[in-house]
Write a structure and sequence with these properties.
It contains six helices and no strands. It is mainly α. It has one domain: Up-down Bundle (Ferritin), CATH 1.20.1260.10. It is elongated. The relative contact order is 0.15.
């Protein structure tokens, strides 16, 4: 992939990360479901961090050819899994999710699936091991979001069944 293609791909990634963050914040503000609100906020924070790291890479690549020396591709781990664990531990009962919550999560699952595939394709086209590792890491993070959102959707549709499948207590406390 030449420099122009990389920069164009990173520009698209920046646009997508920003749109996804705004989507999550909008739905965090709209929902009255505590689980959904926590999930949307956590993923919005993750997308903001992805944005900053991609922006740093984009700015570095604009100034030079090839992968920037000393570029740290580390991104802190997501808090999304902790939210799922917290739900299980507390057998969290929150206000029922509405149809809009479910639609938002379904849309978010599609966003995350597309991002996962996009970064995976960039990894396949990478010119260096560092570049490949960076895009594989982003793909993996987006996959984690997708899986957590699928869990959230399952919880929205059947909280009691979800808790039983996850090994949590029953909603009645038993």
């Amino acid at each position: 992939m030449d420099k122009r293609e990389k920069l164009d791909a990173l520009k698209l990634a920046l646009t997508n990360e920003e749109k996804e963050k705004e989507f999550y914040l909008q739905h965090a503000g709209r929902t009255s479901n505590e689980v959904g609100k926590k999930m949307f906020i956590a993923i919005a924070k993750d997308e903001e961090e992805h944005y900053r790291k991609i922006e740093e890479l984009y700015n570095n690549l604009k100034e030079r050819d090839g992968w920037p020396d000393g570029f740290s591709s580390q991104i802190s781990s997501s808090k999304v899994a902790e939210i799922i664990d917290d739900i299980i531990q507390k057998s969290l009962v929150s206000e029922s999710a509405d149809v809009e919550d479910e639609k938002a999560v379904e849309m978010a699952i599609d966003f995350e699936r597309m991002a996962e595939e996009f970064y995976s394709e960039l990894a396949e086209r990478a010119d260096s091991e560092e570049e490949r590792n960076f895009f594989n890491m982003l793909s993996s993070l987006e996959r984690g979001h997708r899986l957590s959102l699928e869990d959230t959707l399952d919880y929205f549709k059947d909280p009691q069944g979800w808790l039983e499948r996850k090994g949590g207590r029953h909603l009645d406390g038993a």
